[in-house]
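re: that complex we talked abt at group meeting.

here r the seqs, copy pasted straight from the sheet so there may be weird spacing, ignore it
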Amino acid sequence: MLELDAITAGYEPRTPVFRGASLSVAPGEAVGLLGPSGCGKSTLARVAALLHRPDAGRVVVDGEEVRGWRHRAPRHLRTAIGVVFQQPRMSADPRLRLRDLIAEPLRATGRRDEATDRVAELARTVGLTDDLLGRRPHEVSDGQLQRACLARALVLRPRWLVCDEMTAMLDASTTAALVAAVETYRDDHGAGLLAVGHDRVLLERWCDRTAQWADCVEQQPGA
Amino acid sequence: MTPVLSVRDLSVRFRMRGGRHIAAVSAVSFDLAAGECLALVGESGCGKSVLASALLGLLPGNAQTAGTAVLDGIDLLAADERTLTRTVRGRRIGLVPQSPAAHLTPVRTVRAQLEETVRELTATPRADIRKAAVAAAERASFPRALLDHYPHQLSGGQAQRAATALALIGDAPLLLADEPTTGLDRDLVDRTADELRRHADDGRALLMITHDLAAAERIADRVAVMYAGRIVELTGAARFFGAPGPRHPYARGLLAALPERDFTPIPGLPPELGALPPGCAFAPRCDRVSGACGSVPRLVDGVACHHVGGGGGAGAGGVDAVGDGRVDSPSRARSRARSGAGAGAQTTEEGARA
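got the structure back, here u go
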């Protein structure tokens, strides 16, 4: 289980973005979280991805309560969760070729010898050509870069995937292709998915169930 | 009716290092009338935004253009910088930008920016500028209470309205909206689209560039589908989104990819604009590919495909029909002569402008 229990989080201690948000995802389950822009759903996604320390509440990953966040998160938890963000340009190091961008998590965890095989395999999954793998982010389109960002999220074979508005910048065909790639991975590895977004039609088609933001939080200051 | 904007055989190529060329826009032709909304849709990287930049004269120095784009008697592609600055941008073309938060000046309030634009673009007497700025905000439904806010204090939707208010001040006959709904949530997309539609209903021509098919369906009168720099289908929005549906295989695939339809992607990736295959650029991804696809199909009767309708034979330059029986403008003959033979895509040297 990926459990978010009564999470309060924000960027200023006295004025949290939301209070008491709870949501859980069962192994292999795909949950869509729907909410309007600015409600705090991306912040919750960051908490779930261990990238943002909540002010209160518990995150439990496969039975283990999370104590450290960001670089203080223990490696075995950090690598259990893959993340894809909304804006590929802001989440890709402009200096890295796509090949290296995808392999970076392997390098960071001391598994660089797997890189060649794993990158080739994932390039097929997400639909990137060899030519594209040799380019840097400014030489590819948003859709192509997001394909690489998805491959990067999958490279460590995470048990959980957090997709925060993964397809909001993309056209219909690329959206369908990326969702299909996520689903292929989940079929093969049984990974659970938390997909955050505002597109009801998309998330209802994609996920096993969807949750409304308003039903997940206790109270929303300023809302 | 005379179109507000008449584009004929517009091509844009970028000269790259090593003598390579990137054909970002090839032989694009369309007309746009007052009160009409044309949605230009396609995948990212298909040349949509380059087309917008070409109309505004904002292409980088290594771009070469051919063809014509006539607005109000001015050929936008041939106009010099002074003409563009003083008579086109803001005055004949209002730009609704992609990311309004980045388009607004961060260190000045919305009111200050509106007033500056009123001062620059209109002959409003000094005493009335304040009032005119408030009226401009009202036209775009920007809340009066937020006029003294800075851009970072606005939400995405409010910033969008502020940017739209700025675009409307010059009372331009053509509104150019470049991905106006990217990153907005669905309610806001609908509101933004409806507001743009309202401005078209006020008698402006609206060219909306977008990859958001839902937004296009909501407000467009006609849809132009762009693939690898070419318009592959140009048709009425009702036909396109309803029955009988798109005719070009790419357009059909794009629509079928929507989550409310088949949700299946078009196989493969769009081609590189720097290395387009000879012939139909969609052929490598198309399930109907045949020998005929080795030549570039012309846009005939609103669709450029060898397998659909009278889908054109290759070889002739120019465009024989713009898809909906509009009358050709005299500029077409000139542009055809200029773009020469072949696939109509070649930007010949004499037609090219750096």
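couple things i noticed - The first strand of chain A starts at residue 2 and ends at 9. The beta strands of chain A are 2-9, 18-25, 30-34, 56-61, 64-65, 81-84, 160-164, 192-197, 209-212.
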